[in-house]
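Reviewers of the previous submission asked for a worked example of the structure-prediction workflow described in the proposal, so we include one complete record here. The input consisted solely of the amino acid sequence. No template or homolog information was supplied to the procedure at any stage.
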Amino acid sequence: MKNNSMLNEFILLGLTSSWELEMIFFVIFFLAYTSILAGNSLIILTVIFDSHLHSTPMYFLLANLSFFDMTLSTVTVPKMITDFLRERKTISLWGCMAQIFFVHFLGGSEMALLIVMAVDRYVAICKPLHYTTIMNWRILVGSVLLSWFLGFVHSMSQMAIAVTLPFCGPNVIDDVFCDLPLVMTLACTDTYILDLLTIADSGLLSLICFLLLLVSYTVILLTVHRRFSGGLSKALSTLSAHIAVVFLFFGPVILIYAWLSTSYALEKFLSVFFSVITPLLNLIIYSLRNQEMKAAIIRLMSVLGQYSR
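From that input alone, the workflow returned the following structure tokens.
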């Protein structure tokens, strides 16, 4: 990849220019990021070391979701936190390109993983007798690897646009991290066609996946309601966490890429929501609502406590 830009860095304006607010944001985001790292690491370790959880397809997929959330936050949040302590917030050209690559790589992979999780719930609820046969380990591992591959292909399609853009000034990005739509506004060339390609690649793709997921969960609920009397409320209780995660993940993505907004304040909020709030809420939803996960975490903590004595 080659970029013939005259610029070698960008300036990020961040969330605010007030030093007092930046110190408040520093504390809030530092605590949130620490919680994301600790909580998702705990979920991954719990699934790995709990003999029941790591043999259950749903928790295997949940551990992968936790990994995506944790690494996606790591791509943007540490830089965001350290920038709160700096008067001049800069990022190198290739540092900016790296953020774009990993945000789309991990975000696209998580998007595909959520579809796999919806299929897993469909098989578990609608075809329980064939669940272990259909969702075997070969299918599970293959599905996770496929989600990584699709995320990589999606990210490379974004990078094919990003690395060819010439930048000769200005170099100010009114956001907390680099993303392709804002970076393209700084290019010294006509980006109308590239804007359409970005919307089609990210916005339309996100919208289609979101609608497919909604349709799949609707089919599950209708199937349960038709086959099992009184089973709808139980199925809805089981799927509510998954549906909430879908809305939390796809909502900001669709608004950023499919809804052409000129409000930089809204884009900043959505960027923060996508990189900080969504991973944190995913953690809370899965850890607090899932009794089996909470019991496994308690068992793991008790075992670790015995070893530390």
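The mean pLDDT is 84. We consider this example representative of the routine output the project will generate in years two and three.
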